[in-house]
Amino acid sequence: MNRRDFLWAAAAVAAAGKNAFAAPHAFLTRGVVLIPFDLTLPEWPERAAQAGLNTIGLHAGRRLDVLTRFVRSDEGQRFLAACKRLGLHVEYELHAMEDLLSREYIHKDKSMFRMDKNGRRTQEFNCCPSHPGALEIIAESALEFSRILRPTTHRYFYWPDDGREWCHCDKCREFSSSEQALLVENHILRTLRKHHDPEAAVSHIAYVPTLDPPKQVKPEPGVFLEFAPITRSYERPFAEQTAKTLIDRLEVLDANLEVFPRETSQALEYWLDNSRFSGWTRPAKKLPWNNAVFRADVQEYAKRGIRHVTSFACYIDADYVKLHGEPWAAITEYGRGLVQ
Q1: What is the pLDDT of residue 25?
Q2: Which of 93, 135, 249, 288 is the most exposed place for a label (fewest CB within 10 A)?
Q3: Which residues of 163-175 are buried (b: 16+ CB within 10 A; e: fewer)?
Q4: Which residues, in sequence order, are CB contacts of 17 under 8 Å at separation 6+?
Q5: Is 328 within 8 Å of 1 (Cβ atoms)?
C-alpha cells in the first residue's frame, strides 16, 4: 500500500466513525501501547484506526514527566487531536511509584519506604503500603497526574516499580507482593473517585512479582485485572506452555480471574512489542510477528470471557521503517484478529 492509498483509507475510517470495524463479538478494547518516541512513525493513529484498533496507550517506563511533557507539547496535542478525530481512546500506562512517592521523602520519614529482607528501610523500589502517610502522598500524586494525563476511558494505570520487591516490615511481611500492590491501588481508586473522576477504574497489573492472585486483600469495585505475561514464549501458543517451572501460565490467569471480574479484565500482551524482541536495545530487530500464535492466544483469552486486549508495540517507529520496511501487515493482522 503506497502512502496516498494509506491516507485515503485512513480518511475513510475517520469518516465512518469509531465503530466502523466493530463486529458484534469484537473485543471491547483493541489497543496498542507505545512510548511517545514511537510516534515518529507517521500517522500511527491513522494506522491503528484503519487496522480496527480503538485504543492507544502511552507508556512511561520510569519517569512520568516524559508523558506530561509530551501531552503538553504541540506534537502531543496533534496526536490527541488525531485520536479524537479518529475515535481512538487514549490511556496512560505507567510504572509510577517513584513519581507518586518521591524518593526525597526518605529524609522526612523512612518508615514510608519499604523494608528489605535484612530489616533496612530503603528508598529503592515501591513503598511501605502499611504506612497511612505513604498511601496519602501516593494517592494525592496520582490525583495530580490524572488531571494532566486524562484517559478517555476512565481507566488509570499506576503500576508498581518494574518487577521490583515490596516491603518486609512487621506489618507488611504477611502480605504478598500482589496484596501490597492492591492496598495501594484500592487507596488510589478511592481518592480518584472522590476528588476527580466518579467513574475511575484502576489497574492491578499481574506481572512478575504480582502474578499470584491476592488472597487476604480484596479488590474494591473498580479495580480491574491487567494480566501481563512478559516471560512467556511467543514461538508457540500460550496454551501449550504448561511447565510448572514457567512463571507465566494460563492457569495463573485463571486463578486471578477467580478474584477479579472477568468482564473488566484485560490482557496486556507483547505480540507486537519489538522493544522486547530487540532486548530493549536499539537499533531494533525485525519484528518476529507470528499470526498463528496470536490467533490461538486470542481464542484462549476470549473463551475466558476477557474482552479487553492490548499489546505493547514499542520500537515500531520511523527508524524501524528505515531498517525493515513497513510493519503494516503485522498491525493489520493484529487488528483483524481482535475484531473477528
Answers
A1: 59
A2: 288
A3: eebbbebeebeeb
A4: 87
A5: yes
